[in-house]
Design brief:
It is a single chain. By secondary structure, this protein is α+β, with helices and mostly antiparallel strands. It is about 45% helix and about 15% strand. The protein has helices spanning about 20-40, 45-55, 60-70, 80-90, 115-120, 170-180, 180-185, 220-235, 245-265, 270-280, 285-290, 290-305; strands at about 1-5, 10-15, 80, 90, 100-110, 135-150, 155, 185-190, 200-205, 215.
Amino acid sequence: MASLDPTSGHVAFDDADARADQMHQAIDQWLADLVDAVDEARASAEFQRWLDVQSRFHDYSHRNTLLITLQCPDATKVAGYRTWQREFNRHVKEGESAIWIWAPLISPQCPECGNSPSYHADSDCEYDETPTEEWDEGVVGFKPVSVFDVSQTEGEPLAELDTAATGTADALFPAVVDAASDLGVTVEVIAAAAWPHGDAAGVCRHDEDAMPHIEVRHDDPAAMVGTCVHEYAHALCHDPDDTADRTARELEAEAVAYVVGRHFDLEMDGSVRYLAAWSDDDPDRLLDRCERIRETSRTVIDAIADHTDCSASP
């Protein structure tokens, strides 16, 4: 059976012949625990407050997302000047430049030509079967409107979810970085002041004809372990050209971070909150992907263990 090493806190798999089965059983149990913890997190008052904040931000079209990125690459949450005041009790700081996007114009639409009543009256369309007040509303055009990113505002703090791992990882994080070459990736830690990727704690880039390259924002060592392992999972599991189901990929990557962090005795409550934010109503999707999560977790654990004093191998 798997046992707990009293000197390190790490789980050890001592029986060489049964090690694979022991690791699979332990990972399966940890994932089952994670599913239960995600359900509990989603029911918490803290999570409900966070959901309430998220619900008040609009989803934007690809066109507007591109416009926002071009004007303010580090933007994370945007809203109009009055919306920041009315909905969030925050105020745009003096001197900030607006981000311009397209907003839809909603109006009653002619069922025949699709124009608003005023444009319909000036057109050649002869539709007159129903009065304009009975026309359904729809998008009849677009106009430029200004929005501002949360970083351009000040006031009442937004509800946030702390999704970082915690624990003692001063010695573990160097081993996680050293494991990169064994996993076929490269890792770069970037100072928080120079971090170019907004709110993301880490990114995995797949450059043509090169190893996957992971960038991690400098933070507490335990948080960096969780971030780095999450990005390892992306590098090992996911085709960078496959963008069909981002949620599934995030679920798998964070489940791997949870399993590996738990193996090395880190507190992984942050993974629970992260997955609660991604999993909608179906945390059992983690179990549906158990084999991929299991094998990737084992690969990463083995690679890290080879660079620590406490090995996962007998």
